[in-house]
Amino acid sequence: MTGIRRLAQQLNISIGTVSRALNGKPDVNEATRQRVLEAAAAMGYVPNQAGRALRKGSTGVVGFMMQTGSDITGEGDVFFMSVFDGVQTVFARHQLDLVALLCSSEEDPDAYMQRIVARGFADALIISATKRRDHRIDFLAGRKIPFIALGRSETDAGHPWLDLDFEGMAEVGVSRLVAKGHRRIGVFAPRDDTNLGFVFLDAYRTTLARHGIAYDEALVFRTAPNERGGHEIARTIAGMAPEQRPTGFILTNEVMSLGLYNGLYETGLVPGRDIAIIGRDSPQAHYLVPRLTCFRLSLRDLGISLAEALLANMPDYSAHYPLGVVRKIVPLELVEGDSDMALASGA
């Protein structure tokens, strides 16, 4: 007797109802679904995924495309693992599995995406590190593959996306430092055409202008978004004439503050005394001295929102998540520390 037949007999319900419950169909009563899932777990029943895929024309897999390499993730990722946890929390409700699709920094992301799609590896995709103009968006939309982007782009296919509030980071960060007497405010920007860099710099320029401060390209430090990039910024600042150095600095990447702090200390500059710093929160940042003033959000909650917004645009799951096409900027909370001191009089 097959597993699904045994489950139906044990629970005294139809095989069709058991099958729909196991497949997360919306027409099954939630109490019945839980009975089926608990009985299946107790029996040790695991659906034959290959057979299910052939019958349903689907794989039960959602791919999360991210780029890897030392220039991108540095010594390790502190962002995506927490996001993954939130995404899989949602997918587990529907027996879906999240698979990380790791595109090497040496490979063209467009070519990688086309190869993944050609293999029919996943039912839907989550893409990240969106570019100013991102060909992946048009490619996926043209093939009617469900997807969501973690990040905005000028390429617009009417698709769902979530993005962090980089405008808010610029507005709050610059205004906070200006209120503390700073007028030479440095910022990090990516070297490539990642869209967050354009969004942040546009808001940075606008906020400076509102405070009557001229934009200075010399205060935009373009480097890799990792610890080494932060260290490189510190070395560059130390090599500048004192009157040309930024007195305050804003980082939009969560790991760069570690390298920036270390590099400043190595060159005799003290974070929080010689240069005010506002960064992004991370587990490692909690050990920095002085305590980092930082922008914080729940990455797990971001992952949950990302997954629910994707499923809202997949016919088999949209009844569970009547959200429509989600296009949302996710706010961040400023947590005050000791790293963004007021500018000393006469400095």
Describe this protein with a few key phrases.
347 residues; alpha/beta; 434 Repressor (Amino-terminal Domain); Rossmann fold; six-stranded parallel beta sheet; six-stranded mixed beta sheet; 17% strand; elongated
Mean pLDDT: 90
CATH top level assignment of the largest domain:
Alpha Beta
Number of strands: 12
- Number of helices, counting only DSSP H or I runs of 4 residues or more: 13
Helix-strand string: HHHHEHHEHEHEEHEHEHEHEEHEE
Helical content class: 40-55%
End-to-end distance, in Å? 82 Å
The gross shape turns out to be: elongated
Strands ordered across the widest β-sheet: 2-1-3-4-5-11
Strand content range: 15-25%
What is the assembly state of the chains in this entry?
Answer: single chain
Structural class category: alpha/beta
Rg (CA only): 24 Å
Strand count, sense and barrel status of the largest sheet are: 6 strands, parallel
Task: Extract low-pLDDT stretches.
Answer: 49-55
Could you name the CATH topology of the largest domain? Answer: Rossmann fold
CATH superfamily annotation of the largest domain:
Response regulator
Structural features, described:
- The strands form two sheets. The chain has a six-stranded parallel sheet with strand order 2-1-3-4-5-11, sandwiched between helices. Strands 7-6-8-9-10-12 form a six-stranded mixed sheet, with helices on both faces.
- The chain has 13 helices and twelve strands.
- With 347 residues, the chain is an alpha/beta fold.
- Strand 6, helix 10 (195-210) and strand 7 form a beta-alpha-beta unit.
- The longest helix has 16 residues, at 195-210.
- The protein is 40% helix and 17% strand.
